[in-house]
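Reading is simple: each integer encodes one residue's backbone shape. The lines below illustrate:
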Amino acid sequence: MVDMKRIFIPLWKALKDAREMYDYPTDWGMMACYDVENMGFCKDGKTKWYHFTSVDGVPAYTLKY
């Protein structure tokens, strides 16, 4: 099995995709819309990063400022 490199998906797009595909409410955030595989803070101490699998099945990451 070859590891796929994660692609960047802007947070607004990831949420839009999940809400449209699964008919989730518009007030649901990242943790409610996706099975987040890993998360943490960037070096600035404010920005969060999330690893997840996109609605298309592609490994992805996003940032929340």
Summary: Residues 11-22 form the longest helix (12 residues). The chain is about 25% helix and 30% strand. Strands lie at 7-8, 38-41, 48-53, 59-64. The CA atoms of residues 6 and 57 lie 11 Å apart.
